[in-house]
Amino acid sequence: MEEKLWGGRFSAKTDKKVDDFNSSIRFDQRMYASDIEGSIAHATMLGKQGIIPKEDAELIVKTLKEIKVDIDDGKVEFLIDAEDIHMNIEKILTDRIGQVGKRLHTGRSRNDQVALDIRLYLRDEGTEIKAMLKNLLKVLVKLADEHTETIMPGYTHLQKAQPINFAHHLLAYYEMFKRDLGRLTDALSRMNFSPLGSGALAGTTYDLDREFTASLLGFDGVCENSLDGVSDRDFAIELASSLSIIMMHLSRFSEELILWSSHEFSFVEMADTHSTGSSIMPQKKNPDVAELIRGKTGRVYGDLTTLLVMMKGIPLAYNKDMQEDKEAIFDAVDTVKLCLPVFTDMIDTMTVKKENMEKGASGGYTNATDAADYLVKKGMPFRDAHAVIGKMVAYAITQSSALDDIPLSVLKGFSEIIEEDFYEAIALTTCVKERKTLGAPGLARSAVEKAKAFVEKL
Question: How far is CA 411 from CA 111, 162, 163, 381, 393, in A?
């Protein structure tokens, strides 16, 4: 290869192993569209400001658009010797239009160019992930709408606790993913400022119109400090954090689905389209999609940790360490984009076994709290009621009986204030429907309607 674009100061060629070590083209080439978009805006501004001849700016813009089409069509081979996507595209430009192409980098450094490109790229990727989250929210609300009357056990410590409806359980995840959507929106809003014009670290002596290029690129403004403009990667870290939380929520839900699809629970069954079998055990139907999502969550956590550790000891301004930001954030983005659609399809196609869910709620004395509340409403102090029902449960366990199977005459042995209405008070449907405090399962129908109104506006 001919002399590097920065090679004027050097008298010897870069060692081949150093070239390979230094190069990032194998992973940053995915940003070619963002790099060209930024370069078009920069060239347009240079021409507008009279920093380069307007006709040169127009030729640069025209040629950059042609280069993008050629890359889209697979007609361009990037070179490791050119180090990165930025230098590759500038070299292609210069090869095509000669000296005019060399004017593009006027008033610009690779430092602010890289910072710009990654913001543009991640902004687009984040917008795609937002669309995936919105689709997941819609599927969750649709499922919840179908299961406001489906009773299931609620758990604490993975022990049966109180009866709820499946809609209420689904809406808990709806709230998590709704927060994820808000976090992602916030992260993208803080990302949406242009570093272009920050130069290497101290701006430039050229009369750049930074606000103009920011406007062309759809930014909300410019980075106000040139040192920060080139050295900030908070936006990548914040995005990785948001993605990690999304994966945490996917993993929690996946863990429950793995449990629920087991023979011991049998609350749901995954569709054949989203399950796998065993090479040796013919009967197996494995929830591999959920398991892989659970496993890939740690990968995204690792990407976040990589970014945090990379940045923690870097003095201002740009340092080559920061090249390591791309593989980590790209991997986090790719992983979430891989997981969200397949998870959404998995829950959209699974079979919910209503009878097994209700049967699960009927065991484990999930109505014991309601039994205590019954006594409280009859005038007994709650702590005394708690003790009475605790003894009642202990007795029922010895008889292998549910509370509502104990004869009234025996119940009165625990407390004389128990009457025939006790059985209705502790019926599972009553237990669920009478929980009407704000945010409780008894209001699942109105919660679903509120959620439907929200997702319809997305």
Answer: 78, 21, 22, 18, 11
